[in-house]
UniProtKB/TrEMBL annotation:
The gene is rsgA. GTP binds at N111, K112, C113, D114, G161, P162, S163, G164, V165, G166, K167, S168, S169. One of its GO terms (cellular component) is cytoplasm. It comes from Megasphaera paucivorans. The keyword Cytoplasm applies. GO terms for biological process: ribosomal small subunit biogenesis. Keywords: Cytoplasm, GTP-binding, Hydrolase, Metal-binding, Nucleotide-binding, Ribosome biogenesis, RNA-binding, rRNA-binding, Zinc. This is Small ribosomal subunit biogenesis GTPase RsgA. CDD domains: S1_YloQ_GTPase, YjeQ_EngC. Zn(2+) binds at C243, C248, H250, C256. Residues 71-217 form the EngC GTPase domain. GO terms for molecular function: GTP binding; GTPase activity; metal ion binding; rRNA binding. InterPro entries: G_CP_dom, NA-bd_OB-fold, P-loop_NTPase, Ribosome_biogen_GTPase_RsgA, RsgA_GTPase_dom, RsgA_N.
Amino acid sequence: MIKGKVIKNYNGYYYIDLDLPESLVECRRRGKLKQKILVGDEVEITVLDNHTGVIEQLLPRRNEIRRPGLANIDQMVVIMAAQSPAPNRFLVDKMLMTCEYAGIHPHLCLNKCDLDRTIAVAYRDFYESCGYKTLIVSAQTGEGMDELLSLLPHKMTAFAGPSGVGKSSLLSRILGRNDLTIGCVSSKIQRGRHTTRHSEIMKLDYKTYVVDTPGFSSLEFEHLDPKELFCLFPDMIPYFGNCRFSSCLHRTEPDCSVTRAVAEGKIKKERYETYCKVLTTILERKR
Ligand SMILES: Nc1nc2c(ncn2[C@@H]2O[C@H](COP(=O)(O)OP(=O)(O)OP(=O)(O)O)[C@@H](O)[C@H]2O)c(=O)[nH]1
Ligand SMILES: [Zn+2]
């Protein structure tokens, strides 16, 4: 059996990249294999002839997201625009939290810096000080593209962001700079707004993949235990654990190490506000 990666799932066929030259194999799955297979999954296959085969086994997943279904994402680039549409800190926070929840390492990318550099720099300074790598780019002028490209080798990188921020434009630039070794063309990412979108991984180079995540938005956090919410804010974690009450949710409780850190400016007020806002939603839904 040979190991490969599912890069596309279409009409019951799985397209497996074996990471060899010219090695895209069209596979069916073995009937007894009951688990759902996602794009991004690592599998073991039997090759039947030149380019067809059978998936025999699903290998363990490192992480997964549901909408769209994708597995084994090494990093997520959360894209916002510096302008049109205007960025929104609460939305950025929620997307970062969604990545943290899924166990995916996020970076932030401010596109359209040609339209408003001041906003882009303000976002970068803010999120870099929260510990997130933040890039300033322009798909239009090409500024910052080298730094973005330097993040990609030997990883599977997913791109997410609200509509209109320039995901397709950035991906086209990324793909245009590289030879695609398998039959995926960049026109595939220029689909219309209302067509059915399925995730398809595009291969840039050896072990280097990019994937758009249409429909990936922030998680609804209603199923999260209120006590776990804190773990989704890596910048706040160092101040956690010294509260008087072990049940502390860090709002109005006395002698709380988190609210103290906010008052001392060690935790950013805006991040703490996101925490409180999401916590309120979780608590209301639990009622
Ligand atoms: N000024 C400027 N415009 C840009 C830039 N990147 C993208 N745009 C424009 O922004 C608009 C939206 O870009 P898309 O690449 O379609 O955005 P998207 O995020 O893929 O949008 P959806 O397909 O709706 O998810 C287009 O008109 C692009 O030409 C940029 O860096 N600067
Ligand atoms: Zn507390």
